[in-house]
Amino acid sequence: MSSMNKNTVGRRTLSIAMLLLGTLAVIASLYLDAIKSGAGYRGALLIIGAVVILCGLYFYPTIMKHRAIINFIFLFPLLFAFVVTVIIPMILGIFYSFTDWNGVKFSKFVGFSNYSTMFKDPAFIWSILLTVLFVVVNMILVNVIGFLLALLCTNKLKGTGFFRAAYFLPNLIGGIVLGYIWQFIFSNVLVKMFSMKYSLLADTNTAFLAIIIVYVWQYAGYIMLIYITGLTTIPGDVLEAAAIDGANATTTLFRIKIPMIASTITICTFLTLTSAFKQFDVNMALTNGTGSMKFMGSVLSNGTQMLALNIYSTAISRSNYALGQAKAVLFFIILAAVSIIQVRISNSREVEL
What we know:
This protein is mainly alpha-helical. It folds into 2 domains: 2-109; 116-352, MetI-like (MetI-like fold).
């Protein structure tokens, strides 16, 4: 027992020493950064200090909490990255939305001035309405087309593997590259092929239709794979029993397959909703938000500009970072609220099915 106690005391002493040493190293690195000194080794000092602190936690002689400490050590890099790249910027963004921040610093608080300004802007209101319309249309089209492709690719046909890869391939192309490819198709290939007077991108209404076409073409294959996963998990004996009972293909689809993949439908609708709300790259590459129209008594030049691109244009193109950040905060609130409502409705629908 005495040897065990000595071992425990020794491990505790070593652990405390490592914790203190690591903390001092982290503090020293932060101090050097504050006084703009030691640029060659302050980063290494910070990393070494963090590693020593984690090792000190690992060697601390506990019994009940030792596994929790180990779990924390393994989760720490991911949690640290998430806090640094998501939580802290979000908190700072909310703070900056109440200031006159210019992207570098701010001189005063302006309260809700940025929020009142954006709600008085017809171009911003139109971007919200256009985004909502885009989300609704694409949620329906992407899920319906993706589900139909999944049904096609789960039938006992030759070459289904090739078709799955072919349908999914557009999702691997970056949005900017995809936008420029389709811009060439709309402005050159289709115009010559069908002897059109002008490109679909030349008119505000048809340009919005073109964005929908490109988005559905890109995203339907990805949603198809998720539906395929759901359809392949349906037990074969259930389908065989339905066939023996005389159920035709339509009855099997609506009475058995769709109810049994309700959770898959929830996932797909959530993914399409969030992705369509955040649409940016295809919108920028195809039209850059341009398009003349009249709205709220004003002539707008952003007829095809959706919410994400409007925020980008406000902050980057017009260098109004505080107003752009206020729009981003509202964007986050809208997206979070709509996502929560959609998931709850879908979950309740799953229970009914």
